[in-house]
Write a structure and sequence with these properties.
The chain is mainly alpha-helical and 295 residues long. It has one domain. Helices cover 78% and strands 0% of the residues. Helix 3 runs antiparallel to helix 7. The radius of gyration is 19 Å and the shape is globular. The C terminus is likely disordered.
Length: 295
């Protein structure tokens, strides 16, 4: 079931990226973050009410910190997309899975605890190798600052996902977590719009405007599925299966935008899928051998 939640999240995020690609030609980064956050807040408010989940929380500070880190990651990624080749920006952002593995294994070593997750970490590294094969990132000397920002987008994304894991383990409902993150994104986008020029609606084609609502709904659904996956299962397994978003994004590019996938890219897809299957099998075997789930 955990794998299903991650794959659903990857599908929602990949579909959202189609809308970002179309709307991004007409709206600024701040505007996209604001509109995405606003629609997500309204959508999540409906879901909260329908599921009788209160907004009251005993850990407002954790939600504020998760929203801040998540929004910083989102802004850094959008900046990287604007100043780097798309393949490079996506590769740096997807390094979040590598950072997650480093944090988990480093924490185990720091506290003198043994960890049986070495094989899972290998699958995460293998999956990232597949990402590099697919995207073939490049970086010029003039793009070093943007490269650092892109690297930070992956680092802060890893921190945000680990915070999601922590919120889930203390019993915070996934809907509430996603709502507060969406609210944080909305506020951050509004602040950005206050200091930059706002695009007049008369200058925006209807195709871009039509994508604003789907982008927000898809973002909320993707965050909900990913939050559920990180809250309820193996962190490293989720980190590995996140790479499915790259595969789905490449297929969308092939079908909708005519992007070509070279032989090395298809091989990278195979590596990503093989690593995901291996991680799932390893996790299933581990659960069958131990009475308590290890994260």
């Amino acid at each position: 079931m955990q794998a299903l939640w991650v794959l659903l999240a990857a599908l929602f995020f990949a579909t959202m990226s189609v809308g970002i690609k179309i709307a991004g030609a007409s709206f600024s980064v701040s505007e996209l973050v604001f509109y995405r956050g606003t629609v997500s807040v309204l959508f999540m408010a409906v879901l909260l009410r329908a599921n009788c989940v209160s907004l009251r929380t005993t850990v407002p500070g954790l939600h504020a910190w998760r929203s801040l880190v998540g929004t910083l990651s989102l802004g850094a990624w959008f900046y990287a997309i604007a100043h780097l080749p798309l393949a490079t920006a996506m590769t740096l952002n997807y390094m979040s899975s590598i950072w997650i593995g480093a944090f988990i294994c480093g924490g185990a070593l720091l506290y003198g605890r043994s960890s049986s997750q070495g094989p899972l970490l290998v699958t995460v590294l293998s999956g990232f190798a597949g990402v590099v094969m697919m995207l073939r990132p490049t970086l010029d000397q003039q793009q070093l600052f943007a490269g650092v920002v892109g690297l930070l987008s992956g680092l802060t994304a890893a921190l945000a996902y680990l915070q999601v894991t922590g919120l889930g383990r203390i019993g915070e409902p996934e809907l509430r977590t996603v709502f507060y993150f969406s609210a944080g994104s909305m506020v951050a986008g509004l602040v950005g719009m206050a200091v930059t020029e706002v695009t007049p609606w008369s200058a925006v084609p209807w195709q871009a405007t039509a994508w604003l609502v789907p982008i927000g709904i898809l973002a909320a659904l993707g965050q909900w599925c990913m939050t559920r996956a990180y809250s309820r299962g193996s962190t490293l397994l989720v980190a590995n299966l996140q790479y499915a978003g790259i595969v789905l994004g490449a297929l969308y590019g092939l079908v909708l935008f005519g992007d070509q996938i070279p032989l090395l890219g298809w091989a990278g897809m195979g590596v990503i899928m093989a690593s995901g299957i291996a991680a799932t099998v390893l996790r299933t075997r581990a659960l069958g051998q131990t009475p308590a789930e290890e994260h």
